[in-house]
Specification:
The complex is a heterodimer of chains A (74) and B (202). Chain A is mainly beta and 74 residues long. Chain A contains 1 helix and 6 strands; from the N terminus they run E-E-H-E-E-E-E. Chain A has one domain: Beta-grasp domain (Ubiquitin-like (UB roll), Roll), CATH 3.10.20.30. The chains are: A mainly beta (74), B alpha+beta (202).
Chain lengths: 74, 202
């Protein structure tokens, strides 16, 4: 199954990836961002919020983007 | 520079660069954010929308997701503990990233950090490349972008949920305490009588 993955970690990429049928969001996350905590990211499938056990479908677009970006004066 | 002086709040976004020079910022994009004079917090959904849009435009994350820009309304461009924590937590996993802070007083701060290979970080000089073409100032468009994406915290109370709005209204209506004592103890006081309806006809 081919899905599009958008990820800013490492070199960062937005490209097609091949994954086995039945791959869930959690499985894909572990594969793409090993040793990372999902809570530190905002994960969407086809631009919609998703659950960790959502099974991905052919052609899905998964974005793993930074979350809780904040700055302060002091 | 315009956004830094436009409002009394902090404001932040991402620098967009060219493929052949990843440190040459040619555009600055705001995302939805809540700001005060001393704090800025991006909305996660809007950051995701920004990434999706940029990918649709044909850019790669290193061209739009590595240079984090925000302003400080005061004179100091030095990063705060919150800035450092965000830079580490959010941008510390990318191969490289830049934290750029522009203070209203005109000073700025930029730090490039390599997280891959021999890790290193150092402040880098900042300049304007006047040799490049520039479309010109567009204050109207920049103001529109600010209003579209930035929610100053003082405006928050006007966008609260209906329940919260009721609470705000109740707070504003403290004059009910001035009603005569015992008013609510007299049930008849709350009832309209038939005469109330026909009073104006007489």
């Amino acid at each position: 199954m081919k899905v599009i993955v958008i990820n800013n970690d490492g070199g960062g990429f937005a490209d097609y990836q091949e994954h086995p049928d039945g791959t869930t969001v959690a499985t894909l996350f572990d594969h793409v961002c090993p040793e990372r905590k999902p809570a530190d990211y905002y994960i969407r499938v086809n631009r919609h919020p998703c659950t960790s056990d959502q099974v991905l479908q052919e052609g899905d677009r998964i974005s793993i983007t930074p979350s809780k970006i904040e700055g302060a004066l002091r | 520079m315009y956004l830094c002086h436009y409002a009394e709040t902090e404001v932040g976004g991402f620098g967009i660069t060219e493929t052949d020079d990843l440190l040459l910022v040619t555009d600055f994009q705001l995302v939805n954010q809540v700001c005060s004079w001393a704090h800025v917090a991006f909305e996660d959904e809007s950051v995701a929308d920004f990434f999706d849009h940029q990918v649709d435009e044909g850019r790669t994350p290193e061209e739009f997701g590595r240079i984090w820009i925000h302003t400080h309304p005061g004179d100091s461009p030095w990063p705060s503990n919150v800035d450092e924590e965000t830079f580490e937590r959010v941008f510390g996993r990318a191969d490289w990233a830049v934290m750029f802070i522009l203070a209203r007083g005109g000073d700025c701060y930029a730090r490039l950090r390599y997280n891959h290979g021999p890790k290193a970080e150092f402040e880098i000089p900042v300049g304007v490349d006047y040799s490049l073409p520039f479309a010109g100032s567009d204050h109207e468009s920049w103001e529109r972008e600010y209003r579209q994406h930035v929610l100053p915290e003082e405006d928050l109370r006007f966008t609260l949920s209906p329940l919260a709005e009721e609470l705000v209204s109740a707070e504003d209506l403290e004059l009910v305490d001035d009603w005569p004592a015992g008013w609510f103890d007299e049930p008849d006081n709350n009832l309209l009588t038939e005469e109330d309806f026909y009073e104006t006809d007489e």
